[in-house]
Amino acid sequence: MRKNRSVFATVGAVLLLTGCRPIPSQEPVSFSSGHEELQAYPVPSQGYYYNCLNQSQKTAYGEMYNACLRFASHVELTPLSQNDYLVACQAFTMDHPEFYWTDQGTQYYFNNYGSVVRASYDMQGNEKETFAQLEDIAQGIVRSISYDATTYQKLKYIYEYIVWNTDYDTSPREEDRLGQDITSVFLDHSAVCGGYARAFLYLCGKAGVDGAMVIGDAANMTNGSHAWNIVRIASNWYWVDPTWGDPVDEPGIQSINYNYFCVDDATIGVDHFIDRTLGLGNKGISFVCDYPVCQDSSIDYFHVNGSYFEDYSPDLVHMYIRKRIEKGHVSRISMRFASGEALENAIEDLIDNYVVFDIVSATGTQSEVIRYSANEKLHILNITVVVQ
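Below the sequence we write its predicted structure tokens.
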């Protein structure tokens, strides 16, 4: 069953605070030895939010990373404030989707001075084996990418893999994962936005592409909470939303759109609203992480594929549709216009006046059913030709 993108009721609690739960300070935990002797921990290059942290938070982040590399069920922390711990915990979880269990519930403990000194993860005992399984799957996907692929081509391959192999589904699943982590995409093939965004980031890391997972609100959703990504190509940054690339379809029909693939601030800002506090602001925690300006629109799908039109020119649009059909791309033909007026003119000509049927017939394609949808905010027209 295909997803219903309007249902996002389960995102907030898991996504925004990653399940970090405190143990009351009336139950202090102390550590008398060994903590100072921990070897220097490696901090990975891929860690966008690590660079937003203060030194105390970075230390805790590194200790979490070191513990997860050993599949430890708990981590001893250099004492830090509760707020610093929660910031480090959120940053670490968002930077490292490979340690999927850190997003399934974390408890943390205080010492007698009110500092957080320990954290423990809700683990099932099979994390090491599942981690290896996920690594094998990811390596197989990345190896399928052409060795000479550009960064853009790598991103497009990853985007398409996730969309074609994942269904949006908010129904309960085993171990209450709720579709938020990478196991939901690579093992269950069924996820919600947190799963899509984490899986995209995970594969980007394997393919050597810099990026981050982003959270915030989005329009036309039950509770507004949503997750998507930001990626870097050369010196420019772009927004990507793999969840919204997986459109709602009727049974038996599967398609993909690129409305939010490598887009600029103006496009994503139409209906995506970033939470720069990583969900911590509504908990009274002072923390803000900034994002690069995304100004380049030259490599979004429509510009790259010649389907962006400044106005509605019947000759140009008809030619584009005809060429797409002749090349066999009939499942979904997408065009973006510079204005709402141009979009309205396209709909009037192609749909209301049935001109699209004449274009399809002229290519020799037999079809009695043509579906269309329009994104009025982005001025996008999608046409689906059902071949008989």
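The chain has three domains: 12-121, 136-302, 307-386.
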